[in-house]
């Protein structure tokens, strides 16, 4: 009878544990999906999407550190866009997208699970060594929707208890897919906003051009009348009048020059926002002349604020091949921005040097201002630039970077709080297309 009471269909203890484990995993996956969908679709700023996605990913798999990397098709690099952990690489750090375990995950468009990173030959030790991080175990999986190529990589590492494994991949795949969708939604939202801004700027540019027309025309009339008046001045007053005439002509010239610059500047900002820019118009360019024009334009503002504008060794620089208007705009942006950082009694110095071995010149724009924090430095030259001006857009340094890139040059910054800032620009003497002719 006792044998009849036995239920042969009842699962054994090991089977029950296996079923419970699977049920627990499914509950975690559903909870992760709920959290990620609820959190991400409430956010439209890209920075918020990235922060929340990585926070949830680390939380659900109980990992200590992680990062989100974006792929740059032009440079074929992966770039750190967001990171969490005690010793995370700075935002903006890049490496080739065929390096490291992250590169393998991106190239193959599949998740990679490594239980012991230090003995995996694919691991890119350069990142750990540079930033003092020790990676023990990790999962790298492509940041992609259910279909389509990856747009980057999601990495989590160093599980707090045990090791990261394939069970964690299922949860992270859900997070990755939702994150990729939310990133695209955030990007589209930002593009719509920028498109609206660019449209408005186009209208403003047209209005400014119309408003500047009578100013420019009025300056021309004043200049003509000034010449007529000088011709009727008595000989004994000629010297005094000539001095006033030269001063007035300088002011009129500055009015006409700035009227043109304002129009160019608004168009340039609109083009930058739209991601549109015409090809550079390369020609012979004397950097001394360009810097002199920039300083002449900003001199009245600098004098009003008690700031000294200086230039050194620019007369030693040879003629380079460059788009003079764009170089002017880049230097104008840097120096104009520096004026807001320097206190009365301070200085901004533009220095030139030649690198004969590399067939390049270097320009440095150094100020005695308040310096920058690491966060501000890391955001420079990107679409995430942080502006410290009230109402500032942060587009100034992005425009500078675009100009330098258009010339095949490089730019970097040295800055520390309280010690001032120096921008270093390297430009080739001749453009590559000219060398081949």
Q: Find the CATH topology of the largest domain.
A: Beta-Lactamase
Q: What oligomeric state do these chains adopt?
A: single chain
**Strands, count:** 13
The first-level CATH class of the largest domain is given as Alpha Beta
User: What structural class do you assign from the helix and strand content?
Assistant: alpha+beta
CATH superfamily of the largest domain: GAF domain
Task: Give a quick rundown of the structure.
The chain is an alpha+beta fold and 437 residues long.
Describe what you observe in this structure:
The structure is a single chain. Helix 6 (about 165-230) packs antiparallel against helix 7. The strands form 3 sheets. A 6-stranded antiparallel beta sheet has the order 3-2-1-6-5-4, sandwiched between helices. The protein is α+β, with helices and mostly antiparallel strands. Helix content is about 50%, strand content about 20%. Strand 12 and strand 13 form a beta hairpin. The protein has helices spanning about 1-5, 15-40, 45-60, 100-110, 125-130, 165-230, 240-275, 285-305, 325-340, 375-380, 395-405, 430-435; strands at about 65-70, 75-85, 95, 110-115, 140-145, 150-160, 285, 310, 320, 345-355, 360-365, 410-415, 420-430. The protein folds into 2 domains: about 10-190, Beta-Lactamase (2-Layer Sandwich), CATH 3.30.450; about 275-435, Heat Shock Protein 90 (2-Layer Sandwich). Mean pLDDT is about 75; it is low at about 1-5 and about 385-395.
């Amino acid at each position: 009878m006792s044998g009849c009471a036995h239920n042969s269909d009842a699962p054994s203890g090991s089977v029950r544990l296996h079923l419970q484990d699977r049920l627990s995993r499914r509950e975690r996956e559903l909870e992760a999906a709920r959290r990620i969908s609820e959190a991400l679709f409430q956010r439209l700023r890209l920075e918020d999407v990235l922060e929340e996605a990585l926070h949830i990913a680390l939380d659900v798999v109980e990992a200590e550190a992680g990062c989100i990397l974006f792929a740059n098709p032009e440079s074929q690099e992966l770039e750190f866009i967001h990171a969490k952990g005690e010793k995370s690489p700075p935002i903006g750090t890049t490496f080739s997208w065929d390096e490291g375990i992250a590169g393998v995950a991106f190239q193959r468009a599949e998740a990679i699970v490594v239980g012991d990173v230090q003995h995996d030959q694919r691991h890119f030790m350069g990142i750990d060594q540079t930033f003092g991080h020790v990676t023990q175990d990790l999962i790298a999986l492509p940041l992609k929707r259910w279909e389509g190529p990856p747009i980057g990589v999601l990495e989590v590492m160093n599980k707090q208890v045990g090791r990261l494994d394939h069970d964690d991949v299922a949860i992270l795949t859900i997070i990755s897919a939702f994150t990729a969708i939310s990133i695209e939604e955030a990007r589209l939202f930002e593009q719509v906003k920028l498109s609206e801004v660019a449209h408005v700027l186009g209208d403003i540019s047209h209005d400014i051009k119309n408003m500047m027309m009578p100013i420019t025309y009025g300056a021309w009339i004043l200049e003509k009348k000034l010449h007529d008046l000088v011709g009727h001045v008595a000989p004994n007053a000629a010297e005094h009048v000539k001095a006033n005439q030269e001063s007035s002509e300088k002011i009129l010239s500055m009015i006409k020059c700035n009227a043109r610059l304002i129009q160019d500047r608004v168009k340039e900002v609109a083009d930058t926002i739209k991601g549109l820019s015409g090809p550079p118009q390369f020609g012979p360019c004397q950097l001394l002349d360009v810097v002199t024009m920039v300083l002449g334009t900003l001199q009245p503002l600098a004098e009003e604020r008690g700031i000294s504008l200086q230039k050194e060794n620019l007369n030693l620089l040879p003629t380079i091949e460059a788009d003079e208007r764009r170089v002017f705009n880049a230097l104008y942006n840097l120096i104009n921005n520096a004026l807001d950082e320097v206190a009365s009694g301070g200085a901004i110095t533009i220095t030139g040097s030649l690198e004969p071995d590399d067939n390049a010149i270097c320009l440095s724009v150094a100020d005695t201002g308040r310096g920058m924090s690491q966060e501000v430095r890391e955001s420079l030259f990107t679409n995430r630039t942080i502006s410290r001006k009230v109402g500032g857009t942060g587009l100034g340094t992005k425009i500078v970077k675009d100009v330098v890139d258009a010339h095949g040059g490089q730019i970097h910054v040295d800055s520390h709080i309280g010690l001032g800032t120096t921008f270093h620009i390297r430009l080739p003497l001749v453009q590559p297309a000219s060398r081949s002719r």
